[in-house]
Specification:
With 248 residues, the chain is mainly alpha-helical. It has 14 helices and no strands. It is 73% helix and 0% strand. The chain starts with 16 loop residues before the first helix and ends with a helix.
């Protein structure tokens, strides 16, 4: 296997587990004789793919000690920290990565996610603002909409979910989120979104449950008992309690 000589090309794509292990052995041999920061980085990336996050972090630590100019090393170390649920450490690494390249989209996206987990919703919104400026995507609009929901800015969240759907009309998550956001402000058009979700995903158990709850809470015409039964039949156990209470 030819070992990559670039941080931006960390490994051949689509490797099997055995191929990754063989790649690591090749890197072990190189590191045992004349290691570089790139060699440790490359081995760390392979360990990351194997979900060996602690071992990967050790390689990224060494790589960064040798070369502090690789945005990718900080980024992948941050990804390891994030997968270990060390979100503050991950945030620090993404910050370091972005100091080296303020427009590094992957790092902005992961930093926004960590800020959301840490309840820094306004900080997450700023990151999604930057992502949308760099490259508008359905996912970024949806995620910013969720952050707006967390700080009770319903109109902005609904607007973002709508923009997400303009870019990808089959973005089920954005459609569900818009339906729920509309329901929270008693917007009657939310029923159309609930219906559309079920049309696109007829086996979405939670969608039937959400439509039933909306129909019950806002006294909208609809067979909520049928929705609850369908939700339960598809495995959403929370529907059972409501079904017993309202559909005797």
């Amino acid at each position: 296997m030819i070992v990559s000589q670039s941080y931006s090309q960390s490994s051949p794509s689509g490797l099997s587990k055995n191929e990754i292990l063989n790649y690591i052995k090749e890197l072990d041999s190189i590191i045992s004789s004349n290691p570089t920061a790139l060699d440790y980085y490359l081995r760390g990336v392979q360990k990351y793919h194997l979900k060996e996050y602690y071992d990967a972090i050790e390689d990224f630590d060494i790589s960064i000690n040798i070369d502090q100019t690789s945005k990718e090393s900080y980024f992948y170390r941050g990804m390891c920290q994030e997968n270990l649920k060390f979100y503050k450490k991950a945030l620090n690494d993404y910050n370091q990565s972005l100091m080296l390249d303020p427009n590094y989209e992957d790092a902005i996206s992961r930093r926004a996610y960590c800020k959301t987990i840490l309840n820094d919703f306004e900080g997450a919104i700023k990151d999604y603002d930057l992502l949308i400026q760099l490259k508008p995507s359905s996912t970024s609009f949806n995620n910013r909409g969720l952050a707006y929901t967390k700080i009770n800015q319903s109109s902005k969240s609904i607007s973002d979910f709508s923009k997400a759907l303009e870019l990808d009309p089959k973005n089920i998550e954005a459609l569900e989120n818009r339906a729920l956001a509309k329901a929270m402000i008693n917007d009657k058009t939310s029923i159309n979104d609930f219906n559309r979700v079920i049309e696109l995903e007829p086996k979405n158990a939670k969608a039937y449950y959400n439509r039933a709850i909306y129909t019950i809470n806002y006294k909208i015409k609809g067979d909520y008992c049928a929705d609850l039964r369908k939700s339960l039949s598809l495995g959403f156990e929370e529907a059972e309690k409501i079904l017993k209470e309202v559909c005797k």
